[in-house]
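User: I'm writing a tutorial on reading structure tokens. Could you give me a worked example: one chain, its sequence, then its tokens, then a sentence or two explaining what the tokens reveal?
Assistant: Sure. Here is the example chain.
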Amino acid sequence: MPITKDELESVVEELEQHRGRHTELITVYISAGYDVNGVQRQLEAEKSTAKNIKSTATRKNVTDALDKIVRHLKTLKKTPENGLALFCGNVSKTEGQQNLQLWDIEPLMPIKIRLYRCDKEFVLDPLKEMLEVSEVFGLLVMDRKEATIGLLEGKRIEVLQKMTSGIPSKVRAGGQCLFSNSIVETKKGSKQLKVIKIDDEIKCLDIKENKIVFTKVKNKWDVVKEKSFKIKLKDGGSIIASSDHTFFKENNREVVEVLCEDIKVGDNVISFSEDKIYYLEIKEIEEINEKINLIDIETEEGNFFANDILVHNSSQRFHRITEGLTKDFYKRIAGEMKKIFFEMPKLKGIIIGGPIPTKDEFIDNEYLMTQLREKIIGKIDIGGSDESGLKELVEKSQDILANQEIIYEKKLMERFFETLGEKPEMATLKEPDTKQALEYGAVETLFLSKDVDKKIVRELKKIAENISANVEIISTETEEGQQFFNLGGIGAILRFKV
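And here are its predicted structure tokens:
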């Protein structure tokens, strides 16, 4: 059974007191899920190495300690759920005498490392880190293309899940626009783009069939842009387009999409004559740096011909596609967070970081289930959405994190004192009454001040665990916690009257 935090604190204090005369105190950490038989084999091999120790006394102490650990491991069928920490060595304070002791600890949270060390003192840092962790926090950093879910345990950040949206990087919201005087072909002849209306039919390319057809106009927008390009062709034709408008060009006998700002002199764009497709070479590209009226349209086919050049459909359509992909991504993030955090008993809060619109969209549109949304304790403006983003999120959340344990403790004490004042029959104060209620199985939540005698704490906690009561350790760092300690530091809220 995993050790409690207070029991672990006592054991660490005890182990810190021991010092070996030589490198003869053995520390073994077995990580959660690691095969205990593999550790046995490793320690058997270490016994052979120990035979090379020159000092007879040290050699005997090390060998005996290894034997004691191996014998203990043989009694285990498997590694405990949270892993195992073993400490063994001669702790006698009298030289020449042996007092071989073994400590076997199943910690309160999973061990992440495997370690064997023989030294003058026990390696206790991994256990001390656990003592710093009274709660864990869920972390999420995200933008529209990437999200990383993590967990903060004390000072350790663990990456739990990485996700990507699959949204193309060159999709831009806004409008792929052409000069308003551009000519399109309709069933009723040539017309300027500015007079085209929704439901008009204009010429386009059926890409699957590779033939010229008519497509219906679904939407139309007037746009003013300060920068555009005039593309001049070798046959004398030209077209003016915004930098983000998409053209089709020939590339190694294939048709590919290219943004106007990326198109080059010498590229071949797609044109038509008498309903036949052919290519036209770009002769010159002129940049226009002045405000100009442009038109943006959306067609059913996804493309159309303007000034006899095949151009892509409006980016407004791609904006809607992007929005759809974004919503799907948000739902996937929420689903993963539910899997990870919903049944995590030590989860005290969730912090979300990302660009202002993204994280706010995710939170405000309620993609997260209610129980997790209520655990959001902070949202932080950051740029990163990967592991480095998690680190930045934690760094920028120190004030939030520092206040959480205090707030939680204040709420516990408020509930206790409120019950004690308004329903005194449903609460106990001080050791005798609380112990009696524990023995009757009447305690719902046991409250123990951190400064109460540890022997009393261990005794009462053991009874509480036997009746499945909650146990809360209260510090004296808050006014309420100090008041509780001054009143005896032991109390309980009851399930039923005693």
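What the tokens reveal: The chain is about 30% helix and 35% strand. The chain has four domains: 5-132, 136-167+320-396, 178-313, 402-494.
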